[in-house]
Amino acid sequence: MEELLRVENLKTYFFDKKKTIKAVDGVDFAIKRGETVALVGESGCGKSMTSLSIMRLVPAPYGKIVEGEIHLEGKNLVRYTENEMCKIRGNDISMIFQEPMTSLNPVLTIGEQITEVITYHKRLPRKKAVQQAIELLKLVGIPRAESIISDYPHRLSGGMRQRVMIAMAMSCDPKLLIADEPTTALDVTIQAQILDLMKDLSKKVNTSILLITHDLGVVSELAERVIVMYAGQIVEQASVDDLFEEPLHPYTQGLVESVPDIDAEIGRLNPIKGNVPTPDQMPEGCRFAPRCTHAFDRCFKEEPQLLQKKYGTRTVRCFLYEDEEKGAEHARKDQYSHR
Amino acid sequence: MLSYIIRRIIMAIPLLIGISILSFGIIHLAPGDPTALMMDPNIKPEDMEAYKEKYGLNDPPHIQYLKWVGNMIQGDFGQSLIRQGTDVSFLITERLPNTLFLMLVSTFLALIISIPFGILSARKPYTLTDYSVTFTSFLGLATPNFWFGLVLIMFLSVQLGWFPTGGIATLNEPFSLWDRIHHLILPALVLATADMAALTRYTRTSMLEVLKQDYIRTARAKGFKERKVVYKHGLRNGLIPVITIFGLLLPSFFAGTVIVEKIFNWPGIGLLFIDAAFQRDYPVIMAITVIAAVLTVIGNLIADILYAVFDPRIEY
Does one domain contain both B160 and B229? Predict the structure, then answer.
């Protein structure tokens, strides 16, 4: 499969009067065309900021991409001007958000909010755009699309609104769809429907999906590959099957174990102890070390690099795997020398 | 919508009755009566009595009130006690258009200046631009308009001679639009100042809140330029609270005309009111109070209707 998006050494910082907050601190990953990749991690680990960085929508003036490159089909988006980015957003890369209740403009009709994207990017006449909007609404499974189009968002339920958001995001056949916790605010049955819908659509038009979530259930449902982030860095990358079968990084192990098992007889959950370090109190050495059950002396002094494991299909940032990978090079170096 | 408007108008009736009783009572509590001002001090007491009897000033207050309301419903506001023989309704129809014109222009002026500056301020919060707009607004809020009016007259009219010192048109000259506008600029500006400042602040606060909303982020993610994001997706939402404030400010515009018309000698209803108040010209005072009340009620009704126009979530 051809590579669509490549993020290299992305660093997005927030600048306060006194301190610098490193929300995203050196992130590398790639997404292939048509592939669904999940970006998981606890709240505040930088996953949302990573996605906003790709859209170049990091809230100014406090946040800024300070380093790194974001390549979409080989073009570096970080160098794009605001005007050039406007042609990418909503067109090549589109995004859906966590809160369908508040993500639609309350004073514009559903139809207006979809057609405005189509007329803006595809330069279609209004009538045709309306036609297309109706088709899109049908595609995402909205009944009575012809009448819904002149309704306002407050008349729709959360699930319906998220469908509208998806229709809007898919209206220009984007190459990449970034879904930032698309199902978190929905109830479980609706969640499943929305996930199925996204799966279908991405297959139909060969759109890649970057799925941002902290819900491992959603990950197993939708994603092919998983990227685990912790405190602004990637700690592990693997295919979904590998990750659930054999999580390598102690943090990933913790995540997988903390998911309640429906067959288990024990009544208690297995949480990871402690909290995510606040960005201004980042521990020295491995960022997960203070919460890690396997931590040893070195973890508190030295920062581990991403290691390539098992023929380059997975990477992990942990000293535990250094020994078994004899002569292993730093993952990043390795990854790029192949290209 | 139509039934809502009708309902609102019916609901306004008890309100207007209340206002008329209150203002009637307050005016009659003030010491003095018209006879003291208009009569020759050497008048014979029995002539004075005859006069009072003729104009109903000896009736108990509630009878006076009922007589007045009864006539008013028939469109008769009575005759001015001071300008003898002149119908109050004539005085008002002669002057109300001047006041409405002044109010309309300064309302328009306040809106077209304050909303863009409020938005500008909200788009660049906590920057020099924002602070300058904020500072100017507070200055505008804090400046009493009689003082501001006098300062403008002193510098722009008296010293520089750019504007006339007062009046609505140059005397003894044929009507010309430019002459009217020339006379209008200063009073309209002074009348607009305080409310302009308030509206700027409210627009800023409201837009600042709106620009943080999720749907603004959605609009940005669609690839729209900042201008389109702010004006198409932000402004309509941001103006909803401003409409409320605007409805509340309309009466203050009316109150403002009293002072501004006095300073600029603008032949409107405010000037008529202030003169009438000093002379205890009851019929004139009462008629204007009622008209002000009606205008306030209409203003609020307009604000409520505008709500529905701007916000589809509101249904009547």
Answer: yes
Q: For residue range B198-252, list pLDDT tens digits in order.
A: 899 999 999 999 999 999 999 999 999 999 999 999 999 999 888 888 888 888 8
Question: Are residues B13 and B45 located together in one domain of the fold?
Answer: yes
Q: Is the domain of B27 the same as that of B167? A: no
Looking at domain A3-230, which of 2.60.40.1080, 3.40.50.300, 3.20.20.450, 3.30.420.10 is its CATH number? 3.40.50.300
Residues of A in contact with B220 (CB under 8 A): 57, 89
Smallest CA–CA distance, residue B123 to chain A, in Å, is: 11
| Cross-chain CB nearest to B224 (options A104, A120, A152) | A120
Domain count, chain B: 2
User: Which residue ranges make up each domain of chain A?
Assistant: 3-230, 233-337
Residue B183 Rama label (left phi>0; alpha psi -120 to 50; beta):
alpha
Let me know whether B11 and B117 are in one domain.
no
Residue B87, in any domain of the structure:
no
Closest to A251 (Cα-Cα) out of A223, A266, A231, A265: A231
The model's confidence at residue B68, banded by pLDDT at 50, 70 and 90, is confident
pLDDT at A333: 44
Q: Which of A82, A99, A105, A123 to mutate to test the interface with B (most CBs of B within 10 A)?
A: A105
Residue B315 is assigned to a structural domain of this protein: no
Report CB contact under 8 Å: B222, A116: yes
Q: Residue B38's domain spans which residues?
A: 2-73
Percentage, residues of chain B above pLDDT 90: 24
Measure the CA–CA gap between A153 and A156, rounded to whole angstroms: 6
B217, B223, B313: residue with CB nearest A87: B223
Spell out, as residue ranges, where chain A has pLDDT lower than 50. 326-339
Distance of CA A95 to the CA centre of its chain: 10
Please indicate, yes or no, if residue B86 is contained in any of the structural domains.
no
Average pLDDT of every residue of chain A: 86
The full DSSP string for B197-245 is HHHHHHHHHHHHHHTTSHHHHHHHHTT--HHHIIIIIIHHHHHHHHHHH
CATH of the domain at B130: 1.10.3720.10
Region B158-185 average pLDDT:
84
A115, closest residue in chain B (CA to CA): B222
Smallest CA–CA separation between B124 and chain A, in Å? 10
For residue B42, being part of any structural domain is answered with yes
Check CB contact under 8 Å for B237 and A104.
Answer: no
Within 13 Å, how many C-alpha atoms sit on residue A63's CB side? 17
Q: Which residues of B touch A109 (CB under 8 A)?
A: 312
Contact A57 B220 (CB under 8 A): yes
Q: Among all residues of chain A, which has the CA nearest to that of B312? A: A107
pLDDT, position A339? 40
Cβ distance of A94 and B222 shorter than 8 Å: yes
